[in-house]
Design goal:
This protein is α/β, with parallel strands linked by helices. It contains 30 helices and 35 strands. Helix 20 packs across helix 23 and helix 22 runs antiparallel to helix 23. It holds the Pfam family Anticodon_1.
């Protein structure tokens, strides 16, 4: 089919006229100068060949989005559809990831509007948190004449008044939010942009505190001193969702020996004579990747069922561990290690790999023994822990309950308290000893601990390892685990109902549910407190004397009442007495306010509360509040999870019915976009164009949106200049296709009542039915890249390369009111309506332009907000503004279905393909210049097909003139005579011959099958060129063909009347 474009008639090269007057291509016949241009009906339209300038589109986008959103809420008859917006962070400029997210959401919403549903979409922003606070600190530092704070550890900045920080942080967030909002409006995102939600708004904060209060009432909130992820760079606790893991982190690992208490108990547990241990030190050997935690060691953990051996390194014959260490005197030391680790340790430490050891015991025999801490000579116990394995290290685990959750839980059961001699900055405190105080644990402090171990004779081996390590996702700096007093949400009791609730949630991709369930199953508690000023305060009072927290549903209710009246800033400036409930004001105790704020994931995770306003008051439906949540794949451990957990904890149900995740935007080489790599593509560059317009042309808002639609967004999305150029080319093709159709509709003459009479037109409606079915299925599946592909294929393979080429002659050259021309115009009318509707969720401006111009071309009045081709303001009282979004969604029309016609065309198209190849060969061999220079001979072999051809003079139910139109040649000759066929071949009359094509199709239900073969030959057209239509079907030179003579005669008759 694609060959048709090269073989099309001269009409395909004629321009489409613009403006009110008709403009026709001047053409004279070959021998006579007579001009027939005034008799041709060439396309005319004021539909622009190029879109508006991006600046004009931006204004139109904002206007169009607000008005259509209001119109559909008031007028659409269908049920409510809620896509709940996950709040992006109000920090920095929008990037292509934001475009992928917000435009994908908008495509979904606009499709739902077209399907008649009332869409509720409230854009939101996450406004609290560290990045915004750091910007505020930097501004305050500069304003005070100090260097800007580079991190949260800046001493001067940390001492600032919290209210000053909050004031500047709020202004910073709101300034960024407004800038982002303007750009989102320019992208045409459908919403009421005067109604957005912000996590810093008081009504939002009050609802969030209400969720906290309910969780307190249910016993799900508690305070505990235990290890949490701590960011020294941000000086605050972090949740798991705020971490990112760096795969190539380098750490100093160390093998350290701890001297066991050598006594009769040790000998008995090891099953050896005490005399065997006489004057021989016994060491428990551990391996750690965090030597800085050794000052906080409080136990050594073993597994009760692992076998451990007592080995004598002096028997190995190696150096390494047998080399005397500082403090070694007398007979060589003995070591306790897991038996399964001997082989790996032999090469590194010189332990005897093949030796059975002096004795072998189960780990349970070691539990309860004691050892001496090598740095402070504290006597500490050996304990049992189920997490110990013999897969790595030594099989004995250094245990610091202040620096690891598993360590903490193992020690908590034994009454061993957490101990963490590390401050907020990640530096050792005085408790760690004078040699370590003030040193950063991840750098100089780590080195200092290794030096101390070496001096004590405890360090046997050290090496650098590369491994995955958690980093603060904001500051991009490594974190530590550190025991601090924090507020936690107990997830144990809500894990099972949360996981079960997800079983009823649909997902795209389907693996999202399993992934989210895995994250939920892996969490027992959630650290919700942060040591920052910019956030929602945790509404808790503390007894000044005891430090005990006063936190009940009643006290929180009182505090919420005060904050609701005065704002959350009052927590930092109001009198503490105002926040003490009356029942506690005279109890003889003094209280202070807490200074912790809530985790921003708790902030955003309670955004579902605003959706409760959309549920009817009497509605007790347990169904989710939102039809859809859609965010990036990183939100499985972020917003998806926090929303699910807070909703299950307070309402018992998931807040979403369906979960959709998209990937990240990457450059052409699959790298994450970053300023440091210089590979960032700004959305504004896509819209407005770059410095090099050939490499980065201006695609406009529709181009940006079409790029989003073209991606497989459920995976990571690569983007390059070339990919965007391709999308721009496709967009131009869509525009030109619509322009051709609009140019061939006569104003006010085409309506639904006109009849479609020709087979090619009826086949076009079958193709339109298929296209609409495919596009609808793709939209329903949220597979917008498939919608894009269906549009491109329908445009290029069917409309441009097939239907338009076939029907141009009748549109241009037949009489204006001819039934065949009218038949095609009716089809163009249906095509335009379907085409604009399928484009509408993707290319909002192009679709509205098509609709606006189409409405001027058809006889029926438009039932449908403001055309995108204008920017004027429309009175808000208009309830039915003219818009494609107010038109009903075009579904396949059953009246257009014709199984017999479908089978016939399925049989015809392979024959046409073979004919096009033969015509192309004739053209390449210079026998013809264009397809209209040729006739086609169809040889139909014996059988039902040949009989039908002989009896009715038809092939595929078409007479030769119709076949000539479909095959875009001047004439068609049908023959069933093999002798005639052979004679044409032998005499060289055939310029090119196609292959034999088998034909087999049912005539009609219960009427049998037509079978046979068809072979096509190209021959030089035998008639003369018509000076008007250029087909070679005239009786003589400069003589009009019969069709054109009739048309011109009719026009002349009208002119003289």
């Amino acid at each position: 089919m694609l060959l048709c474009g090269r073989l099309a008639s001269r009409a395909s090269r004629l321009p489409i006229a613009t403006g009110a007057r008709s403009h026709y291509c001047r053409h004279a016949s070959t021998g006579n100068s007579k001009v027939y241009n005034q008799t041709l009906r060439l396309p005319q339209t004021d539909f622009p060949q190029r879109p508006q300038r991006p600046a004009n589109y931006a204004a139109t986008s904002r206007h169009l989005a607000d008005q259509i959103y209001a119109w559909q809420l008031a007028n659409n008859p269908g049920p409510q559809f809620i896509l709940h917006d996950g709040p992006p962070y109000a920090n920095g400029d929008l990037h292509l990831g934001h475009a992928l997210n917000r435009i994908t959401k908008d495509i979904i919403n606009r499709y739902q509007v077209l399907r008649g549903r009332r869409v509720r979409y409230i854009p939101g922003w996450d406004c609290h948190g560290l990045p915004i606070e750091l910007k505020a600190l930097a501004k305050l530092g500069t304003a005070n004449g100090k260097a800007p704070a580079t991190d949260a550890g800046d001493g001067a900045a940390a001492s600032l008044d919290p209210l000053k920080i909050r004031r500047v942080a709020r202004k910073t967030a709101l300034t960024t939010l407004e800038a982002q909002k303007r750009e989102l409006q320019e992208w045409g995102v459908l919403a009421d942009w005067d109604v957005v939600y912000r996590t810093l708004d008081l009504d939002y904060e009050v609802r969030q505190l209400g969720v906290f209060r309910t969780m307190v009432e249910k016993g799900l909130i508690y305070r505990r001193t235990r290890p949490v992820y701590w960011s020294p760079s941000s000086r605050t606790a972090l949740a798991e969702a705020e971490l990112e893991y760096k795969a190539d982190h380098r750490s100093q690992s160390a093998y350290v020996r701890f001297p066991m208490t050598v006594d009769a108990t040790l000998a008995k547990r090891l099953g050896v004579q005490l005399q065997t241990l006489h004057n021989r030190p016994v060491y428990a050997l551990i391996w750690t990747t965090t030597p800085w935690t050794l000052p906080a060691n409080r136990a050594i953990a073993v597994h009760s069922e692992i076998e451990y051996v007592l080995v004598d390194p002096s028997s190995s014959g190696h150096d390494g561990i047998t080399t005397p260490q500082a403090g070694d005197t007398g007979p060589g030391p003995l070591y306790i290690v897991a038996k399964a680790r001997l082989a790996d340790l032999s090469a590194k430490l010189g332990l005897p790999a093949g030796s059975p050891g002096l004795t072998t015991v189960a780990g349970s025999h070691l539990v309860g023994l004691t050892y001496l801490h090598p740095l402070n000579e504290t006597i500490l116990p050996v304990i049992a822990a189920s997490y110990v394995t013999a897969d790595s290290g030594t099989g004995l685990v250094h245990t610091a309950p202040g620096h690891g959750l598993e360590d903490y839980e193992a020690c908590l059961a034994l009454g061993i308290p957490a101990y963490a001699p590390v401050d907020d900055r990640g530096c050792f405190t005085a408790e760690a000893g004078p040699a370590l105080i003030g040193k950063a644990v991840l750098t100089e402090g780590n080195r200092a601990v290794l030096d101390l171990l070496t001096a004590a004779g405890a360090l046997l081996h050290r090496e650098t390892i590369v491994h995955s390590y958690p980093y603060d996702w904001r500051s991009k700096q490594p974190v530590i685990q550190r025991a601090t007093p924090q507020w936690f949400a107990n997830l144990h009791s809500i894990q099972t109902p949360a996981i079960r609730a997800l079983d009823a949630v649909a997902a795209l991709p389907t693996s999202s549910i399993t992934r989210l369930q895995g994250y939920v199953a892996g969490r027992k508690e959630w650290c919700i407190s942060r040591q920052r000023a910019w956030g929602v305060p945790i509404p808790v009072l503390y007894n000044e004397a005891t430090g005990e927290a006063l936190c009940t549903a009643a006290t929180i209710d009182h505090i919420i009442g005060v904050l609701q009246e005065r704002g959350t800033d009052a927590w930092w400036y109001g009198s503490v007495v105002d926040f003490i409930p009356p029942a506690y004001r005279n109890d003889g105790q003094t209280y202070r306010r807490g200074t912790d704020t809530m985790d921003v994931w708790f902030d955003s995770g309670t955004s579902w509360t605003l959706l409760e306003a959309f549920r009817p008051p009497a509605d007790q439906d347990p169904q989710p509040l939102a039809d859809l949540y859609l965010e990036g794949s990183d939100q499985h451990r972020g917003w998806f999870q926090s929303s699910l957990l807070t909703a299950i904890a307070t309402t018992g149900r998931a807040p979403f019915r369906k979960l959709v995740t998209h990937g990240f935007t990457l450059d052409a080489e699959g790298r994450k976009m970053s300023k440091s790599l210089g590979n960032v593509i700004d959305p504004r560059t896509v819209v407005q164009g770059g410095a090099d317009r050939r490499r980065q042309p201006a695609l406009g808002i529709d181009g940006l949106r079409l790029w989003v639609a073209s991606t497989e967004y459920t995976k990571d999305v690569t983007v390059s200049d070339q990919a965007l150029v391709t999308v721009g080319d496709t967009l131009r093709k869509f525009r030109n296709t619509a322009r051709f159709m609009l140019g061939n509709l006569d104003t006010g003459t085409v309506g639904e009542t006109n009849e479609v009479i020709t087979d090619v037109d009826r086949y076009a409606l079958l193709e339109l039915n298929d296209f609409l079915a495919q596009a609808t299925a793709a939209y329903d599946a949220l597979a917008f890249n498939k919608v894009y592909q269906h549009l491109a294929r329908f445009t290029n393979a069917f409309l441009s390369a097939f239907y338009f080429d076939i029907t141009k002659d009748r549109l241009y050259a037949e009489a204006p009111a001819s039934s065949r021309r009218r038949s095609t115009q009716v089809v163009l009318h249906h095509l335009l309506r379907g085409y604009a509707s399928v484009l509408a969720p993707l290319t909002i401006h192009l679709a509205e332009e098509i609709h606006h111009h189409h409405q001027k071309r058809v006889s029926e009045p438009s039932p449908s907000p403001t055309p995108a081709s204008t920017v004027e303001t429309v009175d808000s009282s208009i309830t039915k503004p003219a818009s494609v979004y107010a038109q009903p969604w075009p579904t396949p029309n059953p009246e257009w279905e014709d199984s017999s016609l479908r089978h016939t065309w399925r049989a015809l198209l392979p024959v046409r393909d073979e004919a096009m190849l033969a015509l192309e060969r004739a053209r390449q061999e210079k026998h013809i210049g264009r397809s209209l220079d040729a006739d086609l001979v169809f040889y139909v072999s014996e059988g039902p097909l040949a009989a039908q051809c002989r009896e009715a003079g038809r092939l595929f139910n078409m007479v030769p003139d119709d076949l000539a139109e479909v095959f875009i040649v001047s004439n068609v000759h049908l023959t069933t005579d093999p002798a005639e066929w052979r004679r044409g071949q032998s005499e060289g009359a055939y310029l090119a011959v196609g292959n034999t094509v088998p034909v087999n199709y049912p005539v009609a239900p219960h009427h049998g099958v037509v079978e046979g073969t068809v072979q096509v030959a190209v021959r030089q057209a035998t008639k003369h060129k018509c000076p008007r239509c250029w087909r070679l079907c005239s009786a003589g030179v400069d003589v009009l063909c019969p069709r054109c003579r009739e048309v011109v005669g009719g026009i002349e008759d009208v002119a003289t009347a």
